[in-house]
Structures are given as structure tokens and as C-alpha cells.
Structure to design on (67 residues):
């Protein structure tokens, strides 16, 4: 049998305590590599597109009402 070593997973968030008791938080992975980050990116893109579309529809209705 082959001896397979499991790769140790690095934690997503790493905390450090400085000499002056200040807590420093370091994020190990980029948001596009995590599931939560991908979900947040999709929500932001979809929300911004939807908001722009709704605002354009409202603007067209307002302009059409003045004519």
C-alpha cells in the first residue's frame, strides 16, 4: 500500500495577537476561491445588474409621463 499523507488545510482566517494585545486578522484565501466568496460575488453582480435595470425602467416611465 502506498502511504498517502493528507494535505493539511490552512484555516480561512488566521488571527495573531501583537505585543500591544491588538488582534490582527489575516484572510488566507482569496474570495473567489471559497464557496462563500463565490456566492457573495454572484449576489453583488446580480444585485447591481438588477438595480441598474430597475432604475432604467423607472427613468423611462418618468420620461414617458412628461410627454
Amino acid at each position: 500500500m502506498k502511504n498517502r499523507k493528507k494535505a493539511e488545510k490552512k484555516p480561512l482566517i488566521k488571527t495573531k495577537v501583537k505585543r500591544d494585545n491588538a488582534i490582527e486578522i489575516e484572510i488566507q484565501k482569496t474570495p473567489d476561491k471559497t464557496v462563500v466568496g463565490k456566492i457573495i460575488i454572484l449576489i453583488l453582480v446580480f444585485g447591481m445588474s438588477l438595480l441598474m435595470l430597475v432604475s432604467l425602467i423607472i427613468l423611462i416611465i418618468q420620461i414617458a409621463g412628461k410627454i
